């Protein structure tokens, strides 16, 4: 007899207590089959397990109190943020389920029943080494593996999503198998059988899914689309920038026709559900449970093709649909009755349509293009390799081209045939150019002349009268207008005035000022292929100047919240600094709404790209890691003591440490830095800026920052470099990196913290000393932390008796707050989890 869900949970809890093992790594749950059924049978078992687990968990909804009572009795930690079971069953679930699978191993399902899923093994029989087995990975991916064939993966849940899409899951069409991986909705909220809606990535005429877009289908008919992904955002969703993309959402190209999802901060818990009503809900975890962040579709205009061909939808207007200029409704009666699905048709035929066989001189005047601003572009775009200058000509020269648009992340997009699913936005969007007959443009021009001619006559007469009146006054030269660059330098001088004597003033005007078009050319129009990474305030691109010099260009995102003040702050601060362990600023650019900083190019990118990538960790051997630690310390010492200004960085972290060809570290990103004057040792701010996990307690909770605030961040970096793990990474017993390092130190096992890829007995003493220094730097109270000069002395001095560290911050005495909780305010933080405020270099 198959046990009830509550009995299964109670039994699993008992089993877990017996199988719990201490380990430095998060362990997985292994499900083994002692029998060896065929592959197809195993896959069918998994599918049935997936379906029946849904039903079982639904039954728990009215037995919540009983389940929680069992959980408390077994002293299991409730409150796990994310349920790995969710991957298996394809839905959001309670945190009680997560406690069963996230931190232990040893559950064996052995009895393969024809009536249901395998039962929990009651006899603790080990899994045979040559058996086919199932493993639940740390990220929640359930894998079916065949140990008889070198661990071949026969099936995995991340490649077969149900109705939920989680980080590292896969969507798209797999080039190897031809399988189209989509989400499938439930039939209803209480019936988990297959529903009518699916969602997935499609590329249409983009040949290799380079620029996918997300679609929802009802019975294979599209009902919503996101617009193409340009490497940063879905360009058809401009109004959700602050709700989703600022949290660091990203699509990762798996180069196999499929994509997976990630977020900038792995500690954040997100997932997407395709609900039975055909809507995608993005949910994130808070202390109160799962919250809905974004819903797609969100307005009536999001409905696919709502206004038909050549119709534009605007949810802020009434009626919502209108025809493109030069077009009229196909059926006026239906259009007036608000049935817009048949769309619009041209009032005048295009030149190509009128006389396809007539030469360009005899077929009438050439067609023109009507510019529509802030648009969601139509479906079925074709990608072209043309640049921004050649894109219009390529469309103009092709009679079948009905429209074009250009996005820096995607490039040139062309359309042929009817234009369907267009939407007009109030905020950001894409400029779309639609081909219309020259007569439509001419009519528009005649109307403009008729309206403006009388006005122009009045203006001329008035101007003549004013000219006569002004002859009595002496002519005075008009003052010259400040250009963007002149305004920038004027603001720089305001920021630096009074802070230094005239002899020490930096000649800011000697800093090169780049033209935007030069940087656009250097980075291939900021193409995704040139993108080096995504920072807290915008993407960074690799570029090559005309002389061959390689550069890194940080393009500040308008959505990031970093404006002119932060840019000037970084320019003012970094232009005064020269040190081998600080990145060099080459220049900047301010044109219109564009804000760009140009740095020396660092070929090895950032430190975190090596530390936290299992494939690259081995490149950083212990000697290299120790040199990086020492270099960071020397760069920080220069900021705190040796430069003519005393600078507190306030955002020191692994991603802000860049590496050159020789893997020498350079501190970067001074947008949040503060300059201390005279004998000033600490300062206070009402709003906290920085990055979660690196901020000191006095700064995070009270707004006080000083040298010791940077030392705390330095200590976190110490422990990350030693261990090769992020501070947010959860170790055994759900400990973060600081707590785990403290536990090992108290247990006399400090060297167990070291990354196995670099540990060697000959480095044991040096590693132990670095762990000790790292723990000294993350002490709870600022006075207990050493300054940077002392840290360097401890690193470089042999046979030194170092102080014993005390318990680090954020373990027991205090909890870590978020500067502006999303539970208290709907305002989102930026990608790097920073709350922005006006900061200046002084």
Automatic annotation (TrEMBL):
Any one Gene Ontology molecular-function term assigned to this protein's record: ATP binding
> What is the protein's membrane topology class?
Single-pass type I membrane protein
List where in the cell it is found.
Answer: Cell membrane
Record has Kinase as a keyword: yes
The portions of this protein that span the membrane are: 447-470
The cross-references to CDD domains, in alphabetical order and at most eight, read:
PAN_AP_plant, STKc_IRAK
Please provide one cellular component term from the Gene Ontology annotations of this protein. Answer: plasma membrane
The UniProt entry's sequence similarity note says: Belongs to the protein kinase superfamily. Ser/Thr protein kinase family.
Q: What is this protein called?
A: Receptor-like serine/threonine-protein kinase
Q: Which organism is it from?
A: Brassica carinata
Taxonomic lineage from the root:
Eukaryota, Viridiplantae, Streptophyta, Embryophyta, Tracheophyta
